[in-house]
Amino acid sequence: MANAIKNMVITAHPDDETLFFGGTILSRPNEDWTVVCLTDGNADGRGDERMAELEEACELLGVESVIKAGFKDTYNENLDQRLLKKFFTTLPVPDQIFTHGPLGEYGHPHHIQTSYAVHSFFTEVPVWHPAINCFASKREVLTKEQYNRKLEILAKVYDQELIRFSRFIHFPSEELYTQSSLAEVEALAHYLLSKEVNEPKDLDNYLAFKDHLSLFRSSIYDRAF
After folding, report:
1. Strand 174-178 to strand 127-130: parallel, antiparallel, or no bridges (unpaired)?
2. Which DSSP category does 79 fall into?
3. CA–CA dist 59, 73 (Å, integer)
4. Exposed (0-12), middle (13-18) or buried (19+): which is 165, by Cβ within 10 Å?
5. Which CATH topology does 6-218 take?
6. Where are the domains of the chain?
7. Residues in CB range of 225: below 8 A, 6 or more apart
8. If I label 202, which of 48, 49, 140, 153 is the partner at 20 to 30 A Cα–Cα?
């Protein structure tokens, strides 16, 4: 699409693109979309199937380009920041990026690591992330048709995953976003993923959530589903 806004969605796993950003993609069909999936989705031994699901979901969403980085998907093993940033050098530079938030939505370590790597590398590109446990500065309100379409894709393509997380993750009819400073993203990543005792500084979006961070951190490496 000539002169279309070039959007890039960078996620940790197959299904994240639809779960957190699918409605936004569907609501902007005249813009250019690239989805980048960083892991192989093989945490439960279904890597090949999940990569095929990713392709199918992106086709249904109207995504023109899907890029698979193929990093190993093991829940308790960190994604290497150095290797992630090296991979990012191979990507085209978009007009804006949508990626995971610094809390990893529900605390998934790969989401947190992805958020940190993206914010650290793409310092000259606007980066938006889901506004979960913080105030939203951007709202993508979906039509009923767009909302139903998003849920249809999840049910049709990601049915095995949906069974596991449908009682854990909500599906609102609007997708909320905000932008966080690199300092805040970095502070939260270090605090949540390390054994640092000191509370993180440089908080802005998540200042009101500060008193809950220690409890949130205690279950980071306990897989939710």
Report:
1. antiparallel
2. P
3. 23
4. middle
5. Rossmann fold (3.40.50)
6. 6-218
7. 164, 165, 168
8. 140
| pTM > 0.90 | yes
Question: How do 32-39 and 65-71 pair as beta strands?
Answer: parallel
Structure tokens at 5: 């806004």
- Taking residue 138's Cβ as centre, other Cβ atoms within 10 Å add up to 12
Q: Provide the token pair at 33.
A: 């979309």
Is the CB of residue 129 less than 8 Å from the CB of residue 175?
A: no
Alpha-carbon distance of 75 to 89, in angstroms, equals 25
> What tokens does 15 get?
């299904």
Please write the tens of the pLDDT for every residue from 78-122.
Answer: 999 999 999 999 999 999 999 999 999 999 999 999 999 999 999
